Amino acid sequence: MNHLRHIILMVAFLTMLQAKAQESTKHIKPFITAGWNYSRLTGLDPRNSFNVGGGAIIPLFRYGLVGLRPQLLYSQKGARSRFEVYNKERIVNIDANYIEMPIDMILSGKPLATRFNISALVGPYFAYGIGGKTTASKGIYIYNRYQVGDNPSTFGDEMNGRRFDCGLHLGMMTRYNHFFLTITMEAGVKGVMDSRITRSRWDESPTNFGLQVNAGYEL
User: What are the start-end ranges of the H helices in the chain?
Assistant: First the structure.
């Protein structure tokens, strides 16, 4: 129930932002998007995954050069931890699935509805972990307790992953007619995993870091 409550609150917040802006403008542009994630935890190796979802572009001022761009995404993240045991490389794969909400300010040199423009994106993101498993190579234990085949939950009591994540989201967007391409970076500011489990080179709990390349269409 707690998971469902957090998801409902995130959806309600996104809806509130759109409704508030709709009072002052009739130029809201909803969109759908999907793309590639290149994610990692600090101190660990990266992994490839994907994200999918939608959002809206909400012009804020008369000339349409500045806007708000909230999104709601299903996003797969995680990392790989590589090390040697008995002279053989062993790998722990950490999969973490999130419901994520980036809330970007969009800054453009032309009105946002112009046929072709290039815009900067900057803002915070918030995410909540909803699932994911952690797996390991043969011959090792995860956290000295869970052997290969156990597949403990990344956010469960076994791995003790922190479900809530937040950080900085920034990048750029190229738009042509209703189609757009975005390249964005995420830098988490909150520790999301026990460093003893991930065998991180950092003393503190590692944070999420990633690059996303997305394509989308304005409805």
Answer: 2-22, 195-198
For residue range 134-168, list pLDDT tens digits in order: 877 665 555 555 554 567 788 877 677 889 999 99
- Alpha helix ranges (H) inside 44-124: none
Tell me the mean pLDDT in the region 113-123: 92
Distance, in Å, from the CA atom of 91 to the CA atom of 59, rounded to the nearest integer, reads 46
Element (H, E) at 167: strand 164-176
The per-residue pLDDT for 139 is: 56
Residue 188, CA atoms < 13 Å, CB-side half-sphere: 25
SS3 201: coil
In Å, how far from its chain's centre is CA 2? Answer: 20
Please give the Cα distance from 114 to 116 (Å, whole number): 5
Report whether 182 contacts 208 (CB < 8 A).
no
Residues 94/81, Cβ–Cβ less than 8 Å: yes
Residue that is written with structure tokens 């990692």 in the block? 40
User: What is the mean pLDDT of the segment spanning 26-36?
Assistant: 90
Identify any residues that bridge with 56 across adjacent strands, giving them in sequence order.
30
Q: Is the pTM of this model over 0.90?
A: no
